[in-house]
Amino acid sequence: MKSSLRKILIGGGTGFIGSALRSLLKNQGYIVTVISRKPGNETITWEDISKNGIPENTHAIINLAGENVLNPAKRWNDDFKQKIMESRINTTTLLANAIQSTTKKPKVFVSMSGVGIYKPDPEKIYDEYTNIGSSFDFISELVHKWEEASKTSTNVRRVILRSGVVLGRNGGMIKEIYPSFNFCIGGRIGSGKQYFPWIHQYDICKLIIFAIENENVTGIINGVSPQIITNVQFTKTFAKALRRFAILPLPKFVVHLIFGRERGVMLLEGQQVIPKKVVEEYNFKYLYPTIDVACEELVRNKHTTSSVDN
Ligand SMILES: NC(=O)c1ccc[n+]([C@@H]2O[C@H](COP(=O)([O-])OP(=O)(O)OC[C@H]3O[C@@H](n4cnc5c(N)ncnc54)[C@H](OP(=O)(O)O)[C@@H]3O)[C@@H](O)[C@H]2O)c1
Q1: How many other β-carbons are positioned within 10 Å of the β-carbon of residue 309?
Q2: For residue 183, what pLDDT is reported?
Q3: In sequence order, what are the residues at sequence separation of 6 or more whose Cβ sits closer than 8 angstroms to the Cβ of residue 79?
Q4: Which of 2, 12, 208, 248 would give a disulfide with 187, using CB separation of 3.0 to 4.6 Å?
Q5: Confidence bin at 303 (pLDDT 50/70/90)
Q6: pLDDT tens column, 196-206
Q7: DSSP code at position 304
Q8: Ligand 1 atom closest to Cα of 115?
């Protein structure tokens, strides 16, 4: 069947990654429907899924829904943590149950996940085959439960995408730090020695499409670039691409003040993660494999649309 006849359902498709993915899929002739909390154009709600199940002839389902963990406006308390958990686990469970109960099954279910499942360790390099053991903090517990929620007892192909920090011009981390770097008041976070698993927005979207289109892609895949870098390396490269100085580090105590100690770990510590399976087994080709080429794209023609939107 041609992609032009294929229907794709994206939970959380209104967000930073989802909007870019939607454009790319539509450009390739897919028919895309988003699942959102609010009804809208080409959109159904989670209640619709709950009541009516999965729309007929859905080829692939992707779930990207989730409350923004690093929203600095939200205080790190039990209510917010519960919202973070429920927004991922309830939506994923709902989709897994809907897949379970539908007679005409989709071909593939791609469920978003994160590298927070890997414990920061100065020595260890994690790939998709690493035995990760049990959870060690709130974020790792969240990711364990999120991945578990995507299980079904059907033979629908399941792909779990453990993403690093997604770098794109129109959202996520780059949107947050861009103004300070542009005014030369950006800098490393904490010591800057922490590893920084990352991927360009275009590559994460292409990897999702690759996972949909290639039947041999199954199970866990690491959604990170092949290049391991630290926060300092990222900071220097981004500032250089912008032709700015990055002279004002964000000290650890300020990170703790803004984000809280538990959440601050996400910025102050990092993991060395490689996409071994993605590269060696599946031979996926990255458009932005190094931080230099990624940063050049992120600052190129600052006011034009991103390559993902074209
Ligand atoms: N961006 C990154 O660097 C990164 C890295 C690793 C993993 N991830 C994961 O990838 C997924 C997509 O990331 P993103 O950056 O595109 O996120 P995003 O821009 O924050 O969008 C996520 C979408 O989730 C939905 N959502 C938000 N709060 C929700 C809630 N309380 N209940 C149900 N749905 C909710 C929203 O859709 P509606 O408002 O339409 O309902 C939103 O558009 C997230 O699960 C995120 O944790 C992202």
Answers
A1: 16
A2: 92
A3: none
A4: 248
A5: very low
A6: 999 999 999 99
A7: S
A8: 6
- Bridge partners of 148, per DSSP, are none
CA of 137 to the centre of ligand 1 (A): 21
- Torsion of Cα atoms, 208 then 212 then 214 then 217, to 10°: 70
Residue among 172, 274, 178, 163 at smallest CA distance from 229: 274
Contact 30, 52 (CB under 8 A): no
State how far the Cα of 210 lies from the Cα of 203, in Å rounded to an integer.
10
Q: pLDDT tens, 103-131?
A: 999 999 999 999 999 999 999 999 999 99
Phi first, then psi, for residue 13 (nearest 5°) are -75, 0
Q: Label residue 5 by pLDDT band (50, 70, 90).
A: confident
Calpha distance 218→61 (Å, rounded): 14
Ligand 1 centre to CA of 1 (Å) is 30
Q: What tokens were used for 189?
A: 């976070």
Yes or no: say if 50 and 91 are a contact pair by the CB < 8 Å rule. Answer: no
* Pocket lining: 13 vs ligand 1, CB cutoff 6 Å: no
Q: Are 114 and 263 in contact (CB under 8 A)?
A: no
Residue 131, by phi and psi: left (phi above 0), alpha (psi -120 to 50) or beta? Answer: beta
Closest C-alpha to 246, from 193, 309, 182: 182
Q: Which domains does the chain have, with CATH numbers?
A: 3-299 (3.40.50.720)
Give residue 189 CA to ligand 1 midpoint distance, Å: 23
Q: Rounded mean pLDDT of 129-143? A: 96
Pocket of ligand 1 contains residue 307 by CB under 6 Å: no
Ligand 1 within 6 A of CB of 111: no
- Residue labelled with tokens 């008041």: 185
Q: How far is CA 57 from the centre of its chain?
A: 26
Of 9, 63, 68, the one to substitute when testing ligand 1's pocket (max ligand atoms within 8 A of C-beta) is 68
Closest CA relative to residue 118, chosen from 81, 144, 92: 144
